[in-house]
Specification:
CATH class: Alpha Beta
Number of domains: 1
Shape: globular
CATH superfamily: Isochorismatase-like
Structural class: alpha/beta
Distance between the termini: 30 Å
Number of helices: 9
Order of helices and strands: EHHEHHEHEHEHEHH
Radius of gyration: 15 Å
Number of strands: 6
Helix content: 40-55%
Strand content: 15-25%
CATH architecture: 3-Layer(aba) Sandwich
Largest sheet: 6 strands, parallel
Length: 179
Amino acid sequence: MTFLAPENSLILVIDIQEKLVKAVDGQKVSDNASKLLKAANVLSIPAIITEQYPKGLGETMPELKDVANADFFEKTSFSALKTPEIFDKIKKSGRKKIILCGIETHICVYQTAIELIENGYEVYLLKDVCASRDAKNSECAFDLLQSYGIKISCLEIVLFEWLKSSKHPKFKDVQSLIK
């Protein structure tokens, strides 16, 4: 097993959209996703952002669109990998460590995580960048996903694992995101 590094990671943000954020009281999730995407920009980590049926659920939160240097994809299936363009983009990245977050934990995030594992990816699910309408559904999903081998983590753990040291040339830039 190797540590997370900017050169082996890809960020996959699932459905952090206007109506979903309101339904799950997810402003903190959106704020943390914004920090994750800002760090991705600083460290040159590719990111993919999905939108589940944006006509009905609204667009990706503006604070994510404003900072994201990401590829955006619409989808209607719960697993992002069921949308061929998304799965192709992941495969073409050559990166095997997927940093996963989004809404709703027990539906779209869950199904995407399972399918990533089934396709040989190492998945890091950021607990503080995920939500469901009912917190019990999220907790159940985290427990079940961990049993499948998904690593349950948090935003700051991943950020500092990418940096490895306070001597990293981008340390202050990334640290400033969480202060």
